[in-house]
Amino acid sequence: MTEKEYPIPDGESGENEQSAQASAGQTPEAQGTSGQTPAEQPASSGKTLNEILFGVKPEPKPEEKKSDPAASLYDEEDEDEEESAPTLNEIFFGKGKKKKKRERLENVPDNYVPDFLEMTIQSCVKPLEMRFSQINGCYKKAPVAYRSYTYINSVVEGVIPPERYSFAADETERGVRLSGWTIAGAIEAIKKFDGAGRNVEFVSARVTPRLVREVDFYGYIKAILEKNDFSEPEKLCLEFPRTVLYEDEEKVRAALLAMKLLKVKTMLAGFGEKDCPITPLFDLPFDFVIISPWLIPLSVERKRKAAFGELVSLLSALGIGIVFDGVKTDEQLTALARTDGFGYIPSPAYEGEVTHGRLRMPVDEALLQSEEEEV
Questions:
Q1: Domains of the chain: residue spans and CATH
Q2: What is the spatial distance between Cα 357 and Cα 370, in angstroms, rounded to a whole number?
Q3: Which residue, 63, 77, 112, 293, could crosslink 70 as a Cys pair with Cβ 3.0–4.6 Å?
Q4: CA torsion sign, 36 to 49 to 193 to 271?
Q5: How many CB atoms lie under 10 A from the CB of residue 44?
Q6: What is the pLDDT of residues 35-50, one digit of tens each?
């Protein structure tokens, strides 16, 4: 497959060179959601929301029909349903089910769906927002690293967490651009931590497996580092979803080895899910894995805690650092502290003595967290 070229985002705005050449309506980006103040209103960039999020709109595939852009407003399963707003996939990723009764849409203007995008722009809501969850040391029980999450703010769908869109976005070119924006955002956060005197092991940035499949991965990441004038690549950690294990193994291995040359860390998320095989990890040199929340209770179950410990020991023997996601109790914390784990992410349902910061917080709030254990 011929490698594709994608624009390289910078850390200040998350935009890319191609989107800077496009022209469209006003986009007053301002404050969106939690932890930010109205005073933090960036200047208007003069881009459409599509350009802000994903750069220049990709050419439609030959099989896609452009003559009926509003046909996605009706649900195939309920033909008599009244006109409704487009779905999340249709707004952000151009996907939708095949619909019936298109003759009912004759009076819908061609720009009906783009109007919803313009509504988000005119609402002064920042369309993309990064939040950060602390990864606490298993022994220290204070932040040693941060995992980032990219939220989409929409006047139609509200605040959209990555769990709702990321896997759909992974299969689109816009998902590739979103990955670049996320990497640039993580770099910007690292610079802020450094400026505040905070010593963090890494900040993660989720990337789509499509990058491994379609681009010169080494060249793409190196270009982002250079464009953002970033001299601490060892503090950046690229987080891959577990679906990367179903890509061509040689390409994935080459991409991971290339990141070691750049000193950029890599991490596999979702380890322990039913569709996440373990055998590829014998050949794929990930630096870290995030163990799925559903496995964490096994660490204290009488009949299964030994097997859980053996699994952790196996990963450690492979040279992989372990992040435990979704810790709920102090009993689990005590059990995990006996392992060789790197750190843990507390569950929103955590009930224990350790004081954790708010989960998925803005970077300015994360900067205020103490590096010492709080009990």
A1: 128-366 (3.20.20.450)
A2: 9
A3: 112
A4: positive
A5: 14
A6: 444 444 444 445 555 5
> Residues in the chain, how many?
375
Distance of CA 35 to the CA centre of its chain: 19
Mean pLDDT of 83-92: 53
Contacts for 72 with CB less than 8 Å, ≥ 6 apart: 86, 87, 90, 96, 97, 99, 113
User: What gap in Å lies between CA 353 and CA 347, rounded to an integer?
Assistant: 13
Phi, psi of 332 (to 5 degrees): -65, -40
Q: Which of 255, 193, 258, 267 is nearest to 230 (CA)?
A: 193
d(CA 172, CA 93): 7
29 is written with which tokens? 């980006």
Cα–Cα dist 325/268, whole Å: 12
CB 6 within 8 A of CB 215: yes
Counting residues of the chain whose pLDDT is more than 70, the rounded percentage is 67
